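Rotation project, supervised by the postdoc (A.L.). Task for the rotation student: set up a whole-complex structure prediction and record inputs and outputs verbatim in this book. Inputs entered:
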Amino acid sequence: MPRAAEPIELKPSKVPSVVQSIHPRLKEVDRFDAGTQRQVGKFFGDLTTAFATNGKTIISIATPNGPLLSAVSRMEDSTDIDMLESTYKSVLIEAKKLGETTFQNAASGLLTPYNNQIDNFLAAYPDARDDQADRLPYPDQLRHYQKRLLEIVNTLRKGWATDWFYFGNSPPTFSTSYATNSIEAEMWAFWILSDNFKPGADDEEWPMFGDTGLKLEPIARRLRELGVIDKEYHAESWRRHFDKDLLPKQIDNIYGEVDRKDEEEAILKWAENHPRQYLGGNRMGYSPRTINQLDLTNIPI
Amino acid sequence: MQPENGPRSLKMASRWAKIPAIELDGYHGLAAFEVPRPLECGWWRQSGRSAARKKLSGPAVTAGWPPRRRSEYRKLLIAAVRRASSPDAAIKRRTRMGVPMSQRPGQLTLEKELGDFLYKVLTGSVTQEYRNQLANWEIHTNSLIACARNASKHQKAWLDWAKKDHQSSVARLNALALLGLSLVTGPGLSFYPGMCSIGWSPGSLIINTNATCPIPNGLRRLPIPSRSQFIPCPNQRVKCPGRQNRSN
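Outputs recorded:
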Protein backbone atom coordinates (compact mmCIF):
# COMPACT_ATOMS: atom_id res chain seq x y z
CA MET A 1 0.00 0.00 0.00
CA PRO A 2 1.52 3.34 -0.98
CA ARG A 3 2.15 5.90 1.65
CA ALA A 4 -0.40 8.21 0.13
CA ALA A 5 -3.09 6.15 1.83
CA GLU A 6 -2.42 8.24 4.83
CA PRO A 7 -4.05 11.59 4.36
CA ILE A 8 -1.41 14.20 3.76
CA GLU A 9 -2.31 17.60 4.90
CA LEU A 10 -1.53 20.33 2.44
CA LYS A 11 0.09 23.19 4.20
CA PRO A 12 -0.34 26.35 2.22
CA SER A 13 2.02 28.16 4.50
CA LYS A 14 4.76 25.79 3.48
CA VAL A 15 4.39 26.37 -0.21
CA PRO A 16 7.78 27.60 -1.32
CA SER A 17 7.91 31.31 -1.48
CA VAL A 18 9.31 31.03 -4.98
CA VAL A 19 6.04 29.67 -6.18
CA GLN A 20 4.09 32.21 -4.27
CA SER A 21 6.21 34.95 -5.61
CA ILE A 22 5.71 34.10 -9.25
CA HIS A 23 2.56 36.02 -9.40
CA PRO A 24 1.90 38.65 -8.37
CA ARG A 25 5.00 38.96 -6.23
CA LEU A 26 8.43 37.54 -6.81
CA LYS A 27 9.60 38.11 -3.34
CA GLU A 28 12.28 35.52 -3.27
CA VAL A 29 14.98 36.82 -5.47
CA ASP A 30 17.81 35.02 -3.79
CA ARG A 31 17.75 31.73 -1.97
CA PHE A 32 20.32 29.83 -0.03
CA ASP A 33 19.79 26.14 0.52
CA ALA A 34 20.94 25.31 4.00
CA GLY A 35 20.82 21.59 3.30
CA THR A 36 23.28 21.62 0.45
CA GLN A 37 25.05 24.74 1.66
CA ARG A 38 24.90 26.41 -1.67
CA GLN A 39 23.14 29.09 -3.54
CA VAL A 40 20.08 27.62 -5.14
CA GLY A 41 19.70 30.50 -7.49
CA LYS A 42 18.05 33.72 -8.15
CA PHE A 43 14.64 33.53 -9.56
CA PHE A 44 13.90 36.65 -11.45
CA GLY A 45 16.91 38.23 -9.90
CA ASP A 46 19.04 36.77 -12.64
CA LEU A 47 16.77 38.17 -15.25
CA THR A 48 16.93 41.53 -13.59
CA THR A 49 20.67 41.39 -13.39
CA ALA A 50 20.86 40.51 -17.04
CA PHE A 51 18.76 43.50 -17.94
CA ALA A 52 20.74 45.68 -15.64
CA THR A 53 24.00 44.48 -17.09
CA ASN A 54 22.85 45.42 -20.52
CA GLY A 55 21.65 48.71 -19.18
CA LYS A 56 24.96 49.37 -17.53
CA THR A 57 26.80 49.29 -20.78
CA ILE A 58 25.35 52.63 -21.74
CA ILE A 59 26.62 54.17 -18.56
CA SER A 60 29.83 55.13 -20.25
CA ILE A 61 28.10 58.27 -21.39
CA ALA A 62 26.04 58.73 -18.28
CA THR A 63 26.90 61.18 -15.59
CA PRO A 64 27.49 59.77 -12.11
CA ASN A 65 24.40 59.78 -9.93
CA GLY A 66 22.40 60.76 -12.98
CA PRO A 67 18.87 59.65 -13.65
CA LEU A 68 19.95 56.75 -15.83
CA LEU A 69 22.11 55.24 -13.12
CA SER A 70 19.33 55.69 -10.60
CA ALA A 71 16.90 53.95 -12.92
CA VAL A 72 19.32 51.07 -13.44
CA SER A 73 19.83 50.66 -9.69
CA ARG A 74 16.07 50.68 -9.17
CA MET A 75 15.75 47.98 -11.79
CA GLU A 76 18.32 45.85 -10.02
CA ASP A 77 16.25 46.08 -6.88
CA SER A 78 13.10 44.81 -8.57
CA THR A 79 11.55 41.93 -6.75
CA ASP A 80 8.68 41.16 -9.03
CA ILE A 81 8.05 41.12 -12.70
CA ASP A 82 5.72 44.12 -12.65
CA MET A 83 8.32 46.20 -10.92
CA LEU A 84 10.92 44.91 -13.32
CA GLU A 85 8.82 45.96 -16.28
CA SER A 86 8.13 49.43 -14.96
CA THR A 87 11.70 50.08 -13.91
CA TYR A 88 13.04 48.83 -17.20
CA LYS A 89 10.74 51.22 -18.99
CA SER A 90 12.11 54.06 -16.93
CA VAL A 91 15.63 52.93 -17.85
CA LEU A 92 14.75 53.04 -21.53
CA ILE A 93 13.21 56.49 -21.13
CA GLU A 94 16.31 57.79 -19.39
CA ALA A 95 18.55 56.17 -21.99
CA LYS A 96 16.51 57.82 -24.70
CA LYS A 97 16.79 61.22 -23.07
CA LEU A 98 20.49 60.81 -22.49
CA GLY A 99 21.16 59.69 -26.05
CA GLU A 100 19.21 62.53 -27.56
CA THR A 101 20.89 65.07 -25.32
CA THR A 102 24.25 63.66 -26.25
CA PHE A 103 23.49 63.93 -29.93
CA GLN A 104 22.20 67.45 -29.42
CA ASN A 105 25.37 68.42 -27.60
CA ALA A 106 27.47 66.77 -30.24
CA ALA A 107 25.65 68.67 -32.95
CA SER A 108 25.98 71.95 -31.12
CA GLY A 109 29.50 71.55 -29.92
CA LEU A 110 31.09 69.70 -32.78
CA LEU A 111 32.52 72.89 -34.23
CA THR A 112 33.37 74.48 -30.91
CA PRO A 113 36.90 73.05 -30.65
CA TYR A 114 37.50 74.29 -34.14
CA ASN A 115 36.59 77.87 -33.36
CA ASN A 116 33.30 77.31 -35.12
CA GLN A 117 35.08 77.25 -38.44
CA ILE A 118 34.02 74.52 -40.79
CA ASP A 119 37.37 75.02 -42.48
CA ASN A 120 39.19 74.06 -39.32
CA PHE A 121 36.78 71.21 -38.65
CA LEU A 122 37.32 69.76 -42.08
CA ALA A 123 41.05 70.29 -41.81
CA ALA A 124 41.07 68.09 -38.71
CA TYR A 125 40.03 65.13 -40.79
CA PRO A 126 42.46 63.94 -43.41
CA ASP A 127 41.39 64.37 -46.99
CA ALA A 128 38.31 66.21 -45.91
CA ARG A 129 39.24 69.31 -47.78
CA ASP A 130 39.28 68.81 -51.46
CA ASP A 131 40.92 71.39 -53.62
CA GLN A 132 39.06 70.17 -56.61
CA ALA A 133 35.79 70.99 -54.93
CA ASP A 134 36.66 74.65 -54.61
CA ARG A 135 36.49 74.98 -58.32
CA LEU A 136 33.02 73.47 -58.54
CA PRO A 137 29.91 75.54 -58.85
CA TYR A 138 28.25 76.33 -55.55
CA PRO A 139 25.58 73.59 -55.56
CA ASP A 140 28.15 70.95 -56.45
CA GLN A 141 30.55 72.34 -53.92
CA LEU A 142 27.89 72.22 -51.22
CA ARG A 143 26.99 68.67 -52.15
CA HIS A 144 30.60 67.63 -52.15
CA TYR A 145 31.21 68.94 -48.66
CA GLN A 146 27.96 67.48 -47.42
CA LYS A 147 29.25 64.11 -48.53
CA ARG A 148 32.46 64.72 -46.68
CA LEU A 149 30.56 65.68 -43.55
CA LEU A 150 28.51 62.51 -43.79
CA GLU A 151 31.71 60.49 -43.95
CA ILE A 152 32.83 62.18 -40.76
CA VAL A 153 29.44 61.53 -39.15
CA ASN A 154 29.71 57.88 -40.17
CA THR A 155 33.04 57.69 -38.41
CA LEU A 156 31.47 59.22 -35.30
CA ARG A 157 28.58 56.75 -35.48
CA LYS A 158 30.97 53.83 -35.54
CA GLY A 159 32.60 55.16 -32.40
CA TRP A 160 29.26 55.60 -30.70
CA ALA A 161 28.24 52.11 -31.72
CA THR A 162 31.33 50.76 -30.02
CA ASP A 163 30.67 52.69 -26.82
CA TRP A 164 26.90 52.48 -26.50
CA PHE A 165 25.30 49.10 -26.18
CA TYR A 166 21.85 50.03 -27.36
CA PHE A 167 23.15 51.97 -30.33
CA GLY A 168 25.64 49.43 -31.56
CA ASN A 169 23.82 46.17 -30.94
CA SER A 170 20.54 44.68 -31.99
CA PRO A 171 18.44 42.28 -29.92
CA PRO A 172 18.47 38.63 -30.93
CA THR A 173 15.51 37.08 -32.66
CA PHE A 174 13.80 34.27 -30.80
CA SER A 175 10.65 32.16 -30.84
CA THR A 176 8.28 33.37 -28.14
CA SER A 177 6.70 29.92 -27.71
CA TYR A 178 10.05 28.25 -27.28
CA ALA A 179 11.13 30.98 -24.90
CA THR A 180 7.96 30.52 -22.86
CA ASN A 181 8.56 26.78 -22.62
CA SER A 182 12.19 27.30 -21.69
CA ILE A 183 11.35 29.80 -18.98
CA GLU A 184 8.70 27.47 -17.60
CA ALA A 185 11.17 24.58 -17.50
CA GLU A 186 13.63 26.77 -15.66
CA MET A 187 10.87 27.77 -13.24
CA TRP A 188 10.11 24.11 -12.61
CA ALA A 189 13.76 23.45 -11.95
CA PHE A 190 13.77 26.27 -9.42
CA TRP A 191 10.55 25.06 -7.91
CA ILE A 192 11.76 21.50 -7.53
CA LEU A 193 14.89 22.70 -5.80
CA SER A 194 12.92 25.03 -3.59
CA ASP A 195 10.33 22.43 -2.62
CA ASN A 196 12.99 20.38 -0.90
CA PHE A 197 11.93 16.89 -1.99
CA LYS A 198 12.81 14.09 0.38
CA PRO A 199 11.53 10.60 1.20
CA GLY A 200 8.26 10.53 3.03
CA ALA A 201 9.48 8.22 5.76
CA ASP A 202 12.83 7.51 7.28
CA ASP A 203 12.76 3.86 6.47
CA GLU A 204 11.74 4.35 2.87
CA GLU A 205 13.78 5.80 0.06
CA TRP A 206 10.89 6.66 -2.16
CA PRO A 207 8.51 8.16 -3.07
CA MET A 208 9.73 11.59 -2.30
CA PHE A 209 7.46 14.35 -1.15
CA GLY A 210 8.07 18.04 -1.29
CA ASP A 211 7.18 20.60 1.29
CA THR A 212 3.90 21.09 -0.50
CA GLY A 213 3.09 17.41 -0.13
CA LEU A 214 3.32 16.81 -3.82
CA LYS A 215 5.17 14.02 -5.48
CA LEU A 216 7.32 14.42 -8.55
CA GLU A 217 4.91 12.60 -10.82
CA PRO A 218 2.64 15.55 -11.70
CA ILE A 219 5.69 17.71 -12.32
CA ALA A 220 7.11 15.04 -14.58
CA ARG A 221 3.87 15.04 -16.50
CA ARG A 222 4.29 18.71 -17.27
CA LEU A 223 7.92 18.18 -18.16
CA ARG A 224 6.72 15.57 -20.64
CA GLU A 225 4.42 18.16 -22.18
CA LEU A 226 7.31 20.57 -22.48
CA GLY A 227 9.54 17.94 -24.08
CA VAL A 228 12.09 17.64 -21.29
CA ILE A 229 11.00 14.01 -20.91
CA ASP A 230 9.99 11.90 -23.86
CA LYS A 231 6.47 10.73 -24.18
CA GLU A 232 6.72 7.03 -24.67
CA TYR A 233 4.79 6.28 -27.73
CA HIS A 234 5.68 5.67 -31.30
CA ALA A 235 4.68 9.12 -32.48
CA GLU A 236 7.22 10.87 -30.28
CA SER A 237 9.49 11.55 -33.21
CA TRP A 238 6.54 12.97 -35.12
CA ARG A 239 5.61 15.10 -32.15
CA ARG A 240 9.08 16.54 -32.08
CA HIS A 241 9.12 16.91 -35.83
CA PHE A 242 5.97 18.99 -36.00
CA ASP A 243 6.28 20.89 -32.74
CA LYS A 244 9.43 22.91 -32.99
CA ASP A 245 8.73 24.66 -29.71
CA LEU A 246 9.38 21.50 -27.70
CA LEU A 247 12.46 21.56 -25.56
CA PRO A 248 15.20 19.03 -26.23
CA LYS A 249 15.00 15.82 -24.24
CA GLN A 250 17.05 16.14 -21.09
CA ILE A 251 15.86 13.22 -18.97
CA ASP A 252 16.02 9.86 -20.66
CA ASN A 253 15.56 7.22 -18.00
CA ILE A 254 11.94 7.66 -17.02
CA TYR A 255 9.51 5.05 -18.25
CA GLY A 256 5.86 5.46 -17.49
CA GLU A 257 5.12 7.08 -14.20
CA VAL A 258 7.76 8.26 -11.82
CA ASP A 259 7.62 5.28 -9.53
CA ARG A 260 11.21 4.38 -8.92
CA LYS A 261 13.90 5.94 -6.89
CA ASP A 262 16.31 6.39 -9.79
CA GLU A 263 13.60 8.17 -11.76
CA GLU A 264 13.02 10.61 -8.96
CA GLU A 265 16.71 11.17 -8.60
CA ALA A 266 16.98 11.82 -12.33
CA ILE A 267 14.43 14.61 -12.04
CA LEU A 268 16.17 16.11 -9.02
CA LYS A 269 19.49 15.94 -10.81
CA TRP A 270 17.99 17.63 -13.84
CA ALA A 271 16.63 20.41 -11.65
CA GLU A 272 20.01 20.93 -10.13
CA ASN A 273 21.97 20.97 -13.35
CA HIS A 274 19.46 22.61 -15.63
CA PRO A 275 21.16 25.61 -17.19
CA ARG A 276 19.64 28.96 -16.43
CA GLN A 277 19.31 30.30 -19.92
CA TYR A 278 16.58 32.90 -19.88
CA LEU A 279 16.39 33.51 -16.18
CA GLY A 280 20.13 33.49 -16.02
CA GLY A 281 20.32 36.13 -18.67
CA ASN A 282 22.18 33.94 -21.13
CA ARG A 283 19.47 34.43 -23.69
CA MET A 284 19.70 38.16 -23.37
CA GLY A 285 22.16 37.98 -26.21
CA TYR A 286 22.79 40.58 -28.81
CA SER A 287 24.29 40.84 -32.23
CA PRO A 288 26.42 43.73 -33.40
CA ARG A 289 24.42 45.91 -35.70
CA THR A 290 25.52 46.67 -39.21
CA ILE A 291 26.10 50.40 -39.31
CA ASN A 292 24.74 51.43 -42.65
CA GLN A 293 26.64 54.28 -44.15
CA LEU A 294 24.69 57.48 -44.27
CA ASP A 295 24.65 59.02 -47.67
CA LEU A 296 22.92 61.93 -49.27
CA THR A 297 20.54 59.48 -50.85
CA ASN A 298 19.33 57.85 -47.62
CA ILE A 299 19.11 60.66 -45.11
CA PRO A 300 15.69 62.19 -44.65
CA ILE A 301 16.81 65.79 -44.82
CA MET B 1 38.11 80.53 -89.16
CA GLN B 2 40.29 83.41 -88.21
CA PRO B 3 40.60 84.65 -84.64
CA GLU B 4 39.21 87.98 -85.60
CA ASN B 5 35.99 86.24 -86.42
CA GLY B 6 36.36 83.89 -83.49
CA PRO B 7 34.01 82.98 -80.71
CA ARG B 8 32.49 85.66 -78.55
CA SER B 9 32.06 83.53 -75.50
CA LEU B 10 33.95 80.77 -73.82
CA LYS B 11 31.33 78.32 -74.84
CA MET B 12 31.80 79.28 -78.40
CA ALA B 13 35.53 79.24 -77.86
CA SER B 14 35.44 75.75 -76.47
CA ARG B 15 33.34 74.69 -79.37
CA TRP B 16 35.69 76.35 -81.69
CA ALA B 17 38.67 74.74 -79.95
CA LYS B 18 36.88 71.38 -80.16
CA ILE B 19 37.07 70.86 -76.43
CA PRO B 20 33.94 69.16 -75.19
CA ALA B 21 31.72 71.61 -73.43
CA ILE B 22 31.23 69.21 -70.52
CA GLU B 23 34.92 69.34 -69.75
CA LEU B 24 34.86 73.06 -69.54
CA ASP B 25 31.56 73.30 -67.80
CA GLY B 26 32.91 73.05 -64.28
CA TYR B 27 35.83 75.23 -65.03
CA HIS B 28 34.26 78.02 -66.91
CA GLY B 29 34.56 80.40 -64.00
CA LEU B 30 38.21 79.65 -63.57
CA ALA B 31 38.95 79.51 -67.19
CA ALA B 32 37.24 82.79 -67.70
CA PHE B 33 39.39 84.25 -64.99
CA GLU B 34 42.63 83.09 -66.46
CA VAL B 35 42.07 83.01 -70.15
CA PRO B 36 41.34 86.22 -71.91
CA ARG B 37 38.06 85.74 -73.50
CA PRO B 38 37.66 87.03 -76.95
CA LEU B 39 34.90 89.28 -75.79
CA GLU B 40 37.02 90.91 -73.14
CA CYS B 41 40.13 91.44 -75.09
CA GLY B 42 38.12 92.86 -77.87
CA TRP B 43 40.17 91.27 -80.52
CA TRP B 44 37.29 91.14 -82.83
CA ARG B 45 37.16 94.89 -82.89
CA GLN B 46 40.76 95.71 -83.22
CA SER B 47 42.96 94.57 -85.91
CA GLY B 48 46.48 93.53 -85.50
CA ARG B 49 48.40 91.72 -82.76
CA SER B 50 49.75 94.75 -81.04
CA ALA B 51 46.33 96.07 -80.19
CA ALA B 52 45.35 92.78 -78.69
CA ARG B 53 48.53 92.50 -76.64
CA LYS B 54 48.06 95.94 -75.37
CA LYS B 55 44.72 95.07 -73.88
CA LEU B 56 45.74 91.76 -72.38
CA SER B 57 47.51 91.17 -69.15
CA GLY B 58 48.04 88.31 -66.72
CA PRO B 59 49.67 84.94 -66.88
CA ALA B 60 47.63 83.77 -69.78
CA VAL B 61 49.09 86.37 -72.05
CA THR B 62 51.80 84.65 -73.85
CA ALA B 63 53.70 85.21 -76.88
CA GLY B 64 51.81 84.39 -79.91
CA TRP B 65 48.51 85.77 -78.69
CA PRO B 66 46.05 85.97 -80.26
CA PRO B 67 46.46 82.65 -81.92
CA ARG B 68 46.08 82.47 -85.53
CA ARG B 69 45.08 78.90 -85.78
CA ARG B 70 42.50 76.85 -84.09
CA SER B 71 45.10 74.42 -82.81
CA GLU B 72 46.98 77.26 -81.16
CA TYR B 73 43.89 78.51 -79.46
CA ARG B 74 43.12 75.01 -78.26
CA LYS B 75 46.57 74.64 -76.76
CA LEU B 76 46.29 77.94 -74.98
CA LEU B 77 42.89 77.07 -73.62
CA ILE B 78 43.98 73.68 -72.34
CA ALA B 79 47.07 75.15 -70.73
CA ALA B 80 44.94 77.78 -69.02
CA VAL B 81 42.57 75.16 -67.69
CA ARG B 82 45.47 73.11 -66.41
CA ARG B 83 46.98 76.08 -64.68
CA ALA B 84 43.69 76.93 -63.10
CA SER B 85 43.14 73.42 -61.83
CA SER B 86 46.58 73.00 -60.31
CA PRO B 87 46.72 72.67 -56.49
CA ASP B 88 48.95 75.70 -56.23
CA ALA B 89 46.40 77.81 -57.97
CA ALA B 90 43.66 76.48 -55.72
CA ILE B 91 45.62 77.35 -52.60
CA LYS B 92 46.42 80.73 -54.01
CA ARG B 93 42.81 81.36 -54.74
CA ARG B 94 41.60 80.21 -51.37
CA THR B 95 44.03 82.32 -49.42
CA ARG B 96 43.91 85.19 -51.75
CA MET B 97 44.60 88.45 -49.99
CA GLY B 98 44.75 86.62 -46.66
CA VAL B 99 41.01 86.62 -46.16
CA PRO B 100 39.56 83.41 -44.63
CA MET B 101 36.93 81.63 -46.60
CA SER B 102 34.29 82.20 -43.97
CA GLN B 103 34.69 85.94 -44.20
CA ARG B 104 34.26 86.11 -47.87
CA PRO B 105 30.75 86.83 -48.92
CA GLY B 106 30.47 83.91 -51.28
CA GLN B 107 31.77 81.30 -48.84
CA LEU B 108 29.84 82.40 -45.77
CA THR B 109 26.72 80.79 -47.11
CA LEU B 110 28.53 77.53 -47.74
CA GLU B 111 29.82 77.35 -44.20
CA LYS B 112 26.49 78.20 -42.70
CA GLU B 113 24.75 75.64 -44.83
CA LEU B 114 27.28 72.99 -43.92
CA GLY B 115 26.89 73.76 -40.23
CA ASP B 116 23.13 73.53 -40.51
CA PHE B 117 23.46 70.32 -42.45
CA LEU B 118 25.67 68.77 -39.78
CA TYR B 119 23.27 69.82 -37.04
CA LYS B 120 20.32 68.38 -38.90
CA VAL B 121 22.07 65.10 -39.56
CA LEU B 122 23.01 64.61 -35.93
CA THR B 123 19.73 65.74 -34.42
CA GLY B 124 17.60 64.18 -37.15
CA SER B 125 18.90 61.05 -38.79
CA VAL B 126 21.30 59.84 -36.13
CA THR B 127 18.91 60.60 -33.29
CA GLN B 128 16.12 58.80 -35.10
CA GLU B 129 18.42 55.86 -35.67
CA TYR B 130 19.12 55.72 -31.94
CA ARG B 131 15.40 55.92 -31.16
CA ASN B 132 14.73 53.04 -33.54
CA GLN B 133 17.39 50.96 -31.84
CA LEU B 134 15.90 51.67 -28.43
CA ALA B 135 12.45 50.77 -29.76
CA ASN B 136 13.81 47.43 -30.98
CA TRP B 137 15.24 46.72 -27.55
CA GLU B 138 12.01 47.72 -25.89
CA ILE B 139 10.06 45.32 -28.10
CA HIS B 140 12.52 42.56 -27.30
CA THR B 141 12.31 43.20 -23.57
CA ASN B 142 8.54 43.36 -23.60
CA SER B 143 8.46 40.04 -25.46
CA LEU B 144 10.72 38.43 -22.88
CA ILE B 145 8.65 39.77 -20.03
CA ALA B 146 5.47 38.55 -21.71
CA CYS B 147 7.06 35.13 -22.14
CA ALA B 148 8.01 35.09 -18.47
CA ARG B 149 4.48 36.06 -17.49
CA ASN B 150 3.00 33.30 -19.65
CA ALA B 151 5.45 30.76 -18.31
CA SER B 152 4.66 31.65 -14.72
CA LYS B 153 0.95 31.54 -15.50
CA HIS B 154 1.28 28.06 -17.01
CA GLN B 155 3.36 26.85 -14.10
CA LYS B 156 0.94 28.25 -11.56
CA ALA B 157 -2.04 26.70 -13.33
CA TRP B 158 -0.31 23.33 -13.51
CA LEU B 159 0.67 23.56 -9.88
CA ASP B 160 -2.89 24.35 -8.87
CA TRP B 161 -4.08 21.41 -10.89
CA ALA B 162 -1.46 19.19 -9.28
CA LYS B 163 -2.55 20.25 -5.82
CA LYS B 164 -6.20 19.64 -6.57
CA ASP B 165 -5.35 16.33 -8.14
CA HIS B 166 -3.34 15.45 -5.08
CA GLN B 167 -6.19 16.40 -2.78
CA SER B 168 -8.68 14.42 -4.80
CA SER B 169 -6.35 11.43 -4.85
CA VAL B 170 -6.00 11.63 -1.11
CA ALA B 171 -9.77 11.74 -0.80
CA ARG B 172 -10.00 8.82 -3.19
CA LEU B 173 -7.58 6.82 -1.14
CA ASN B 174 -9.50 7.63 2.00
CA ALA B 175 -12.66 6.43 0.36
CA LEU B 176 -10.85 3.31 -0.73
CA ALA B 177 -9.70 2.72 2.81
CA LEU B 178 -13.27 3.08 4.01
CA LEU B 179 -14.37 0.64 1.37
CA GLY B 180 -11.81 -1.87 2.53
CA LEU B 181 -12.91 -1.35 6.07
CA SER B 182 -16.50 -1.85 5.12
CA LEU B 183 -15.57 -5.03 3.29
CA VAL B 184 -13.91 -6.30 6.41
CA THR B 185 -16.56 -5.18 8.81
CA GLY B 186 -19.50 -5.67 6.51
CA PRO B 187 -20.16 -9.30 7.36
CA GLY B 188 -20.02 -8.47 11.01
CA LEU B 189 -22.49 -5.71 10.58
CA SER B 190 -24.81 -7.93 8.60
CA PHE B 191 -24.45 -10.65 11.20
CA TYR B 192 -25.50 -8.30 13.93
CA PRO B 193 -29.04 -7.61 12.77
CA GLY B 194 -29.41 -11.33 12.11
CA MET B 195 -28.48 -12.03 15.64
CA CYS B 196 -30.86 -9.39 16.73
CA SER B 197 -33.61 -10.93 14.71
CA ILE B 198 -33.29 -14.14 16.69
CA GLY B 199 -33.02 -12.36 19.94
CA TRP B 200 -29.27 -12.78 20.41
CA SER B 201 -28.41 -9.25 20.06
CA PRO B 202 -25.78 -7.94 22.40
CA GLY B 203 -28.35 -5.75 23.99
CA SER B 204 -30.49 -8.69 24.83
CA LEU B 205 -27.70 -10.14 26.96
CA ILE B 206 -27.40 -7.06 29.01
CA ILE B 207 -29.37 -7.20 32.13
CA ASN B 208 -31.04 -4.24 33.65
CA THR B 209 -30.59 -2.05 30.74
CA ASN B 210 -32.88 -0.10 28.59
CA ALA B 211 -31.25 -1.33 25.43
CA THR B 212 -33.62 -1.88 22.70
CA CYS B 213 -32.50 -3.89 19.78
CA PRO B 214 -30.32 -1.49 17.82
CA ILE B 215 -31.42 -2.68 14.48
CA PRO B 216 -30.87 -0.21 11.73
CA ASN B 217 -33.98 1.39 10.42
CA GLY B 218 -33.87 -0.48 7.15
CA LEU B 219 -33.90 -3.79 8.92
CA ARG B 220 -36.71 -3.11 11.25
CA ARG B 221 -39.81 -5.00 10.61
CA LEU B 222 -41.83 -3.41 13.28
CA PRO B 223 -41.73 -0.13 14.97
CA ILE B 224 -39.59 -0.11 18.01
CA PRO B 225 -41.68 0.28 21.10
CA SER B 226 -41.23 3.24 23.24
CA ARG B 227 -38.89 3.08 26.17
CA SER B 228 -41.70 3.09 28.73
CA GLN B 229 -42.95 -0.27 27.49
CA PHE B 230 -39.94 -1.99 28.92
CA ILE B 231 -39.88 -2.66 32.58
CA PRO B 232 -36.41 -3.23 33.80
CA CYS B 233 -36.22 -6.46 35.71
CA PRO B 234 -32.90 -7.78 36.87
CA ASN B 235 -33.94 -11.42 36.70
CA GLN B 236 -35.62 -11.46 33.41
CA ARG B 237 -34.22 -11.17 29.96
CA VAL B 238 -35.51 -8.34 27.99
CA LYS B 239 -37.29 -9.73 25.04
CA CYS B 240 -36.87 -8.28 21.74
CA PRO B 241 -40.12 -6.88 20.52
CA GLY B 242 -39.62 -8.39 17.12
CA ARG B 243 -39.36 -11.85 18.50
CA GLN B 244 -42.27 -11.22 20.79
CA ASN B 245 -44.40 -10.17 17.91
CA ARG B 246 -43.22 -12.98 15.75
CA SER B 247 -44.12 -15.49 18.39
CA ASN B 248 -47.50 -13.99 18.51
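Student's summary: Residues 1-33, 36-62 of chain A have pLDDT under 50 and may be disordered.
Supervisor addendum: The longest helix of chain A spans residues 81-109.
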